[in-house]
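We close this part of the discussion by returning to an individual protein. The sequence in question and its structure tokens are set out directly beneath this paragraph:
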Amino acid sequence: MIHFTIEDRDGERQPIEIPEGINLSLMEVLKASEYTILATCGGMALCATCHVQVLDGIDTLPSAQDAELDMLDTLPDAESDSRLACQIRVDETLEGAVFRIKSPEPSY
């Protein structure tokens, strides 16, 4: 099992446990775990509505690719520890990581 933590917009933390080899992105896990993120583009790194901040574990994650970095550059609140959840694959590199949801709350 892979264990990591999600901090929501209110600062509340919830541990997440995902089976190894599930082949999902962090965005897909967040949506399946009923976190309110838009993920408008469906995981193509085109909208930044799945913006997360890596509070712990950024050194173990694969580096962001150019498309992700370009999209993060458009965000006024992006920092060096910002990532797009759609571009992070859930695998053993996430073990022990802590992510804060940064994308705005959807307004339906």
Remarks:
- The mean pLDDT is 93.
